[in-house]
Amino acid sequence: MNALKSTIALLILCPFVRAETATNEREVEKTIVISGNDLMKYDVVAFEVKTGSKVKITLKNIGKLPKIAMGHNLVLLKSGVTAVAFGQKALAAGAGPTNPVPNGVKGDVIANTKLLGPDESDSIVITAPAPGKYEYVCTFPGHFALMRGTMTVK
Q1: In b/e form, how buried is each residue of 131-141, taking b as 16+ CB within 10 angstroms?
Q2: Residue 129 predicted with pLDDT over 90
Q3: 91 within 8 A of 116, measured Cβ to Cβ
């Protein structure tokens, strides 16, 4: 009997959960779509957002090489953290195809996508922080040298 009551309660609550997700999606003020390719480049290397706005950043891996050889992610860094310094620190902490954002560097990160293989995508939703410049980078080993960009918050 308790299981039946739990099931009924879950079915009643499910529409509200879906509505909240839809509401959150509607609250997004700006969507940025960035592609990464087999040449280790993002197609968007700079964009602007307003402080306090809800921003959705979607990364698409449009490359064809397998994830183990050419995976891509997007790691949005805290203010004052440079992509090159972070990439070196992540590499030294053991960043690799199975652990793209090691524990030793997570304190420098605002948000990150998962590591993507060909034709995969992932999104992060953030509330834009204080005005300033925030770099983003791919932490697949060696990619930080070329695969980076800047989010400017005004």
Answers
A1: eeebbbbbbbe
A2: yes
A3: no
Total of domains in the chain: 1
Q: Which residues contact 88 (CB under 8 A, 6 or more apart)?
A: 144
In a domain, 40, yes or no: yes
What is the extent of the structural domain holding 52?
29-153
Let me know if residue 16 belongs to a domain. Answer: no
Q: Coil, strand, or helix at residue 10? A: helix
DSSP 145: G
pTM, entire model:
0.83
For 10, 70, 115, the CA distances from 62, given in Å and listed in that order, are 39, 11, 13
CA distance 115 to 53: 26
Starting from the edge strand earliest in sequence, which strands make up the sheet with 30-36, in order?
30-36, 54-61, 121-127
Sign of CA dihedral 132, 136, 142, 145: negative
